[in-house]
Amino acid sequence: MLLEDLRSFLTTGFGPEQAVLVLGAVNTLVNSQRTHDLGREMVIRCLAKKDLFPPGLLPLLESLVGSVGLIPYLSKDVSTFEEQLMLEAHRTPAIGKVDFFHTLQLQIYRELRSKRNVVLSATTSVGKSAIVDAIIASGDHKHLTIIVPTIALIDETRRRIIETFGSRYAIVTHPTQVSSRDKATVFVLTQERALNRDDLQDVSFFVIDEFYKLDLQMEKSIERAVDLNLCFHKLSSNGAQFYLIGPHVDGINGLASKREFLFLPSHFSTIALDIVQYGLPRDGGEREEKLIELCEELTSPTLIFCQSPGSAKRAAETLLEAEGLLPETDLTWPAVEWLEKEYPEEWIVTHALRRGVGIHHGSIPRALQQYMVKAFETGAIKFLICTSTLIEGVNTVAENVIIFDKRIKNTGIDYFTFRNIAGRAGRMRRYFVGRVYVLEEQPEPDTCVIEVAVGTQSETTPMSLLLDLEDDDLTPASKTRVESVTRESPLSLETLRANRRVHIEKQYDIYDAIWRDTSLLGRPLAWRGVPDSPQLLAVCNLIVDYLDSEILKGYQIFSGKQLQAKLYSVENSKSLREVIDDFVEHRRRDASVSDAVELALRFLRKYVGYTFPQSLMAISHIQGDVLRKIGVEPGNYEFYAAKAESLFMERGLFALDEYGIPPETAIRFAPVAREYPTLDSAIELVKRMDLRGVDLTKFERDLIDDLRASLLS
Fold first, then answer.
1. What is the rounded CA–CA span in Å between residue 185 and residue 105?
2. How would CATH label the architecture of 88-265?
3. For residue 377, which of 16, 79, 311, 706 sits 20 to 30 Å off, Cα-Cα?
4. Residue 217 phi/psi, 5° resolution?
5. In what order do the strands lie in the sheet with 241-246?
6. How far is the C-alpha of 270 from the C-alpha of 127, rounded, in Å?
7. What residue segments make up the domains of the chain, in order of their start?
8. Residue 127 region, left (φ>0) first, then alpha (ψ -120 to 50), else beta?
9. In Å, how far from its chain's centre is CA 453?
10. Secondary structure element (H or E) that encloses residue 146, with its range
11. What are phi and psi of 427, to 5 degrees?
């Protein structure tokens, strides 16, 4: 049977008389080394059409399933000793819902149990996290670290580990949490949080999820890529075993010089993909028409990938304006009711959710992002419009993926990124065949080799990475570059390292500005705790003049005085809604209310809660060097930076956002006179509080119940 005929049968269906021919053709593919991977794909497609095979042929299909290593898909009612032996060989440790490894998982598990370092490069559906859980279950390691690319992934991982292991392991996710050397612990952290901890010296096994981000060209933020390299270096230099996981790549350079490891690039997959290309132009409305047409036809869970929040908004508006396509649904009304209370009613997220469409991107508050994924998982919403924030590691139940844009921001996606997005279609044991609809054109296949920056140093390697390495870890050329900088720099090595996210020339400019302006050499910069108005204005002027001017222009902030006023408005507001309403009231003429809401959220989360604290601490370190040289006690801005990170809320209450409780809700149920400086103190409140008499919506009560169910008793 020709391959195209086989594909046709497994797509459109076949009768009993063709079933033997189908299995025969698949058997031929499976038994040839050259076509074995293709044979596995055809076995998966056969499983999707299992109901079409006569009962007498099902044992033959089972045999093919076993021969391609898809052990979890086998029937557990075995009839021979050999079949039972094969099942038992692939049985997992007790890790919840997963009972059996497939053959690739078993291979990796055995390598890791043998203390080998492993780099697994495989498709999204291969079940990499089950191997992590199995290693935890083995008991080989008392302290383990899992490095995830986003804060959104922290809680998903935390919940999975608690569900599987209960109280056997303490789980540390937040900077305010303290670990104990005596207690078995799993740290679930981003690279930034891992670098800021001093209690990881006992970690003997660590995982980096999405390891391709070690390549400076593969991560959107070079600063984050540098931090990931430093995190890998920090943990591996302590002698910890590593397991790096990510999508399929063709090679990896930069690990081998000091560390032995097994690189496993595999095309093993547990699902098959159908990819349909339409080749539609970017402009002119044809993509929008096709999007509507597809959403009219598709009945199963569907991700719609967009290049940016703005594109996600356009896609949502396209679906909402299509007459009769999306009726209102009762399944999301508790969330809609809450959104209408906490945000302006014109926000596109509220309108979309009312009609069963979720929106997920970086400007959406974290607790809402989590709700969108859960609503998608449970079927409360059928379409989830997303950007790369969801594609990078978050698992969903999508059978279909519609790629609305072939760009991320304004850059065309490469073949690697395309495959990563497409890999979100299909789900092991639920959807054997994922379907990908590309409205434009997919990129041409190419090779992808990851260059790990810490091990492939060149003249373009960022100084921020080199400065944090020991001499033994630097190449001769890198050592010369570092020596030149440290010899000529007016700033201490400690400051240069602490300020690695700020370009060195900008740091020198700030240093010079402080030296030149004698009015700054004292009280205006030498403050601790909470600054008074002149002190805050002094640092805001430096931030606007030397660090964040381009970013702040996007928020219509052009001076230190304007930045100070915005910060005070956040600090003194009674609710986040006040800040959002202020952005709405003062929006540009060409901006909609919905645009203003998302600008406000972006300002709060990405600037006040992220960029501003980093810029503030950069100035703190620099003024410390200057003032110490003239014999003045330097300031320390750490306390105020931490307050800004939490949007001037109690730090512990704000941290609940990462666990699914919005800040607006946390403020509502927390006693006013109490302080909650740590995440654990806020969690204790959630565990023990009596909600009777507290003015909460059904949505908020559901979120609290969901969090309580995920906590250790």
1. 24
2. 3-Layer(aba) Sandwich (3.40)
3. 311
4. -85, -10
5. 170-172, 185-189, 143-147, 205-209, 241-246, 118-121, 262-265
6. 9
7. 3-68, 88-265, 272-438, 495-645, 651-709
8. left
9. 21
10. strand 143-147
11. -150, 130
Instruction: Answer whether 464's CB lies under 8 Å from 226's CB.
Output: yes
Phi, psi (deg, nearest 5) at residue 296 = -70, -30
**Regarding beta strands 357-360 and 383-386, do their DSSP bridges make them parallel or antiparallel, or are they unpaired?**
parallel
Give the mean pLDDT of the chain: 94
End-to-end CA distance of the chain: give it in Å, rounded: 59
CA distances from 190 to 153, 586, 664 (A): 9, 35, 25
**Among 130, 134, 139, 141, which residue's Cα sits nearest to residue 93?**
134
- How far apart CA 546 and CA 616 sit, in angstroms, is 12
Which residues are CB-contacts of 279 (< 8 A; sequence separation ≥ 6)? 440, 441
Q: Which tens digit of pLDDT belongs to each residue from 222-262? A: 999 999 999 999 999 999 999 999 999 999 999 876 789 99
Q: What is the pLDDT of residue 187?
A: 98
Is pTM, for the whole model, over 0.85? Answer: yes
Type and span of the H or E element at 477: helix 476-488
CB 507 within 8 A of CB 491: yes
Tell me whether domains 88-265 and 272-438 share a fold.
yes
Please report the DSSP string for 590-632 in residue order. Answer: T--HHHHHHHHHHIIIIIIIIIHHHHHHHHHHHHHHHHHHTTP
Q: In Å, how far are 141, 619, 655 from 646, measured between CA atoms?
A: 34, 20, 8
Q: Give one DSSP letter per residue of 565-595, joined into a string.
A: HHHHHHHH-SSHHHHHHHHHHT--TT--HHH
DSSP state of 300: S
Residue 386 bridge partners (DSSP): 305, 360
User: What confidence score (pLDDT) does residue 96 get?
Assistant: 78
Give the closest residue to 435 by CA, choosing from 341, 613, 298, 240.
Answer: 298
The residue assigned the tokens 């740590």 is: 678
Per-residue model confidence (pLDDT) at position 410: 60
Compute the CA torsion angle 38, 39, 42, 44 (nearest 10 deg). Answer: -100
Nearest to 189 by CA among 231, 225, 250, 135: 231
Of 522, 156, 594, 54, nearest to 514 by C-alpha is: 522
User: Which DSSP state fits 167?
Assistant: G
Which CATH number is associated with domain 272-438? 3.40.50.300
Contact by Cβ (8 Å): 382, 296:
no
Distances (CA, A) of 650 to 288, 645, 646, 647, 677: 44, 10, 7, 9, 6
pLDDT digits (tens, 9 = 90+) for 590-614: 999 999 999 999 999 999 999 999 9
184/170 Cα distance (integer angstroms): 6
The band of 123, judged by pLDDT with boundaries at 50, 70 and 90, is confident
Characterize 264-296 residue by residue with b for buried, 16 or more Cβ atoms within 10 angstroms of its Cβ, and e for exposed. eeeebbbbbbebeeeebeeeeeebbebbbebbe
CA 527 to chain centre: 36
Task: Give the CA angle between residues 267, 128, 180 to the nearest 5°.
Answer: 155
pLDDT above 90: residue 383: yes
CB 435 within 8 A of CB 276: yes
pLDDT of 174 over the 80 cut: yes
**Cβ atoms within 10 Å of 385's Cβ, excluding its own:** 31
Res 10: pLDDT: 95
